[in-house]
Sequence to fold (433 residues):
Amino acid sequence: MNAELPHVVIVGCGFGGLEATKVLDGAPVRVTLIDRSNHHLFQPLLYQVATAGLSAPSIASPIRHMRRHQRNLTVLMAEVAAIDKAQRLVELGDGQQIPYDYLIVAAGATHSYFGNDHWQTHAPGLKTLADAFKLRARLLSAFEKAETLADQPARESWLTFVVIGGGPTGVEMAGTLAEIARHTLRDEFRRIDPSRAQVLLVEGSDRILAAFKPEQSAQAQAQLERIGVTVRVNCRVVGIDETGVDLQLPGGGRERIESHTKVWAAGVAASPLARTLDVPLDRAGRVIVDEHMNIPGHTEVYVVGDMAAAHSQEKDGSRKPVPGVSPGAKQAGRHAARQILARMQGRSEAAFRYQDYGSLATIGRKAAVADLGSIQFSGFSAWLFWLFVHVYFLIGFRNRLRVFVDWAWAYFTFQRHARIVVEPQHHGDQDEA
Fold:
């Protein structure tokens, strides 16, 4: 590559970073893409890996293979430790420094325990494939542990699953756990009845799926309850330990739920890398950006995706927050890359405008809710639409075909093939399975 060409560094190969890379393909720039892993992850289906519905290669693709034909791109598998805006340098964890002319930061988000980080040991979240492997081991090992116990109360605490957070991830996780207990594991145990497992979904606000319309939230809750999930709204988690969860009830009282297996789906925070930029952050640690995804005073630095507190410039002149979903990250990544090319030509793109294509959430087998703006529907039709959309947006024909076949098999047999646990996990174990 021509060393005299402008150098664009992209940090993170999530949805935003990948889209930016595509826009810059063939442009008169040098591109360096830095990611701590060697793969792009289709995160909306990560819970399917955690619940043994899909194998990891079905939702992850090697970055180098995906972008092998992009001749102006260099891929580095490395950890970014800090960003020096004054010197225009990206500092890697091993001490290397990568200079840039333009920088797109798309490092994503991590779990937020609202100041209670010690809860993470007992209630892991789900952001990476490593998280999914650990969680899958915990969930399946809970049934195995219950099978070994003779004491009924002890069994019940292992067969009680608490999902904390009523957003799409929490709803999808709770619904899938209920299906595993009632269908997938049927007839496989002799000392326990998996169908008697309790799945609780705990939400601190007055309804689940707060991003959807109230009537759709009610439909989703009804569908969850039909498949055996107990939904608890207006209940705030105030304590999590190895053996259970403490809830603060609507009336001010408290309740203890005995459970060895908890899943955290209640909050996210921007990557800690945001703090190294030394710019204003919002309450979730996200970087406050302008209408072009730039940070204050630095038109060469862009922040997109879950790291950015971005707004969309609407036709009526108002500005609306961009939701932390994959379409928002993709559109922001494309805008940042186009803005770089425009500025190289001495012009500027129009202010970023987010195109909202709607929201989807699946509850379980033949159950989902869909909000497409002027059209809302739920049940079997929404579930089919959810399946089509997620298969369509997967990267690569092989992944699409594999996921379609796996889902078809699961639909007709109720079986989940990715149920291998290499190292069982109980209590606070943190080893990767």
